[in-house]
Amino acid sequence: QLQLVESGGGLVQPGGSLRLSCAASGFTLDYYAIGWFRQAPGKEREGVSCINRSGGSTNYADSVKGRFTISRDNAKNTVYLQMNSLKPEDTAVYYCAVYIPTVQFMCVMRTILYAYWGQGTQVTVSS
Question: Tens digit of pLDDT for each residue in 101-121?
């Protein structure tokens, strides 16, 4: 059974850091580009970051550039999102998702492309 499981969310003060993990089971991440998305209450799901198959190309939403870093460890079948300098507006449920890319050297954060999704992990940034 194909499964993505996010972990690492929680409550953090503004300016703090969290590292989210997304572990895959039932399949190997090697063939997939991976994205992180988030959805705040009353808002649409938005792309946060993505990483291509090799890990050599990444994309970030403007709102998180310079603060978040995506990485992958194919040996551990896991992808990470390091989140620094967190702000209250980063509060949301964070999801990881994967798709098989047609262009290997890049990734895109188009929700419709992503075939498999995790259940999400809550991140709350508040003092």
Answer: 888 888 999 999 999 999 999
